[in-house]
Amino acid sequence: SKSAYKTERDPNFKELSEQDLAFFKSVLPPSSIVQDEDNLSNYNIDWLKRYQGHSKLVLKPSTTEQVSKLLKYCSDNRIAVVPQGGNTGVVGGGTPVFDEVIISTSNMNNIRSFDAISGSLVCDAGCILENLDNFLAENGHIMPLDLGAKGRQVCQIGGNVSTNAGGLRYLRYGSLHGNVLGLEVVLPDGTILNNMSTLRKDNTGYDLKQLFIGAEGTLGIVTGVSIASPKRPKAVNLALLGVDSFDQVIATFKRSKDELCEIVSAFEFWDQASINLVQKHLAVGSNIPLQSSHQFYVLVETSGSNKEHDDEKLGQLLEGLITDGIIQDGVLAQDTTQIRNLWAIREGIPEACSKAGAVYMYDISMPVSVLYKLVEDLKTRFQEKGVFGEGKLIKSVTGFGHMGDGNLHLNVEADAFTPEATGLIEPFIYEWTAENSGSISAEHGLGRMKNQYLHYTKAPEMIDLMRRLKVVFDPKGIMNPYKFFPSS
Ligand code: FAD
User: Fold this and answer.
1) Where is the FAD-binding PCMH-type domain (predicted)?
2) Residue ranges per structural domain of the chain
3) Which residue of 158, 212, 336, 482 has the fewest CB atoms within a 10 Å radius of its CB?
4) ipTM for the complex shown
């Protein structure tokens, strides 16, 4: 394992026996049970190929009742379980560490209902995010979240909820903590918690669903999701800007908010090193419609209902930014194809990183004023140690992210995932984040990558209360062990 810390299999967890398999076969048809090495391998390794598990069994229930039977059995027999959605997570949360049984929600993919008046969508947890968005588009609505992990990669709404995924529409629609209206969850003992409310308001007691949002499969398995979907904006505009310093990126952000006000729906940035990676590894990299290269690139998106009004506002903003020398270049997408192409450049960055080899991905939130300073400080650190550049231990450092949410994605391309490379980056990066009042995980979660570092963002009393809550939901500790909490 290339995990950040060494851990041993908990001997209290039962090893699978023929009897266990016989039970699973009594609940699921043969086609929903994966046991052969070839097929298992895809479930045992994460998208970044950093965390290798050793599960011998994947179960793919198609109903909530099946999930309930499986979990109850695992709980009664103390069999460790890893819930898995689309397996696009980037912190090693969705893959096993040892021989945990994987319960995949891939066969749970029905849309249960859609209310065109309120916009509430009720569906199974295994529905693919992109399919849900396409379904809503036909009905004039939009999913309140959008990630680069759609399309060829197939993140599922249950995985999105379990990681409290942020993504590209966060600035406009906010967090899943606000957009999820209800959840159906199976607890480890098989209890089905049916809270599939479609109400926007409900102040009756503790809002239990919130605990499962971002719980990374440590409390139970999410089987159903009810989510508020806004109306799909009628007019969408996108501009790509070339900017020569990060201070100017900040100035552009401020001006965009001031002038575009209610219609600004996304503000993303990336640096020159990010575009270098995209150009090296992906075809979309040759599609950058700016005249020269820049230190930074910005995408400003507007979403509204009156195209003429939005065009005018965005046009004026660009003109002003160029006249005042805040941006050096800018282009307005002319049609939906160009909008798609520009987004493809931005969304291509994580994919390009994955093709680059051993890429350590960090995901940090902090005050916007210092958002890029970590990238610079890290580069300086590597330079001073003489480990930075082609042919060296660390090949590149790239920064991009959701500027509007104060969220930096920082990627370090190393020769290989080695303790030496890890030691150059961690805990430096986490110490830096704590000193700057940031969070070590803005949106990816803790999983196996950051569980040991939780204390950089959360106080001991909070970690202690989290542990006590975990025992209430999962007294036998079978749900997604070895992750999320620091090993003590
Ligand atoms: P998985 O990877 O399968 O699982 C993630 C975690 O949730 C695991 O801990 C797993 O045990 C748990 N889990 C999954 N399903 C369930 C369930 N039904 N019940 C209980 N627990 C469950 N993330 C962002 O937030 N913003 C981004 O912009 C973003 N961009 C990305 C771009 C790319 C190219 C890629 C590959 C990833 C990106 N991610 C991003 C990370 C990832 O896509 C998200 O974390 C996503 O929400 C994970 O969904 P999934 O279905 O793949 O879940």
Assistant:
1) 51-232
2) 111-228, 235-351, 357-445
3) 336
4) 0.99
